[in-house]
Amino acid sequence: MSATDSFTNMAEFIRHYAGITPHKRAIAVPTGRDRAGRVAYTHLTFKQLEEETNRYARGLRKIGIKRGTKTVVMIKPGIDLFVTFFALSKLGAVMVMIDPGMGILNLRKCIGEAEPEAFIGITPAHILRVILRWAPESINCNVTLGPRLFWGGHRYKDLRDADGTQVEIENLGPEEMGAIMFTSGSTGVSKGAVYTHGILTNQVRFIQQTYDITSEDVDLATFPLFGLFDVCLGMTAVIPEMDATKPAKANPKKLIEAIEDNGATMMFGSPALVDTLSRYGVEHGINLPSIKRAISCGAPARNDILQRFHRMLGENVEIFTPYGATEALPVTSIGSRTILDETAAETDSGGGTCVGYPLKQVKVRIIKLIDDPIDNWSDTLVLPAGQIGEIVVKGPIVTRQYYRRPENTRLAKIAEGDEVWHRMGDVGRIDEKGRLWFCGRKTHRVQTAEQVLFTIPCERVFNQHPKVFRTALVGVGKPGEQMPVICVELEKGIKDLNTTVLIDELKELGAKYEHTKNIQHFLLHPGFPVDIRHNAKIGRELLAKWAGEILKSRG
Questions:
Q1: Overall domain count for the chain
Q2: Which residue, 28, 227, 228, 242, has fewest beta-carbon neighbours within 10 Å?
């Protein structure tokens, strides 16, 4: 049994590593460049992180933040975010985590639903909070990082207590609410998934066990939330120079620089970021010998991206692609070598994307496609191996409810005694080996008069064309009478394109497979709308509306 197995507060991990690896860097953040253009980094060791969180926990407690206080945190990735998160953890406050890239209107709605009592944020966030009236009835404690203007409250720097000695960490129950984490809203309305302290600490343990992470590792953390898990695993979290809300636009030179400067042994990035990085790396003949493993999630990993990224990595390095969602993560995992050696051919022929075996603590089932709520579990819902249906999961990392959204909770959860199955909203199948195959979102399925089409199996067929960057299947019309349309985004730099020839070639590809042979409509799009969090999930609802307008205009 590990010394950390009994932890139910994320702050306990920091104190643990401050005791056994006090001088190891916990977090490193770029803070500028010297006259030679070299990056200068500010860092905190685990001992320093522990002391800083003690100081700020004391300061936050003095202004009334305590166990159960719902606190919005809107701070840019960096040392202040880490210190604030774990100081609040020590106090047992409930952190409200909202992606700032989701848009002003969504932010206002999400914050209003959470009914927070405290708001800790940078100056621009407070300006928006006041002008747009984010939860003015519930927020009674404000903390500002940066200039504090007309709204009063407290300055963050004033809360740093001189005493860095240990603050008692709240002894929290595993079922006690620890955080409200909002979904990105890329496939529907943003909802606050209720994370208990048991779910948070189980995620730390599952990630460590699944990827054999040790305290010797250094991670390039391009997704801030995963960076918080890094330090709980005893790793150094390196925050690169990039806008975390736009991973697809990250500067690959700066990512490579951060890896080489810090000897990163692993990295976490969305498929969009990995695509950008691998294109640059292969073009310039760059290798990353220090990287021992990579993790990419947020959308299915394309085989061509994995192959390209492998050319930058060592011979035995794996790129792991876990499957999950805000409401349940991680559920399954698979390595890139298994994908490329065993499952790629089936994916290319329309079999979906293999996302691997379920973690041993997690149960995965495929149930019938039902759009209505399912109040109680029944084994009669389960489909046999090989059939495509909705993916449902159960286990210690599965959230049980959405905050203040009972109807959404009822639609997404199935009760089985004291346990809960979460409906992922995705479709897929389980093969004869027990591996899960992802086939797209349930709401994105196209229902024609003759058949039901799923996005990933169809799109992969057409993505094989060398001039195609990616495609998106959408349906125009009412379900049951929909017309399937393939929207096409070309590779960059394509010139002198004969559209008629391209479409004929795509039709030829589709004619090879039973599930795509009837697709006859192809529309070129200048650049797909994508989700704000990972820049990888395609906004098919917007594309469907666009496609409908185009086809209508053509008569």
A1: 3
A2: 242
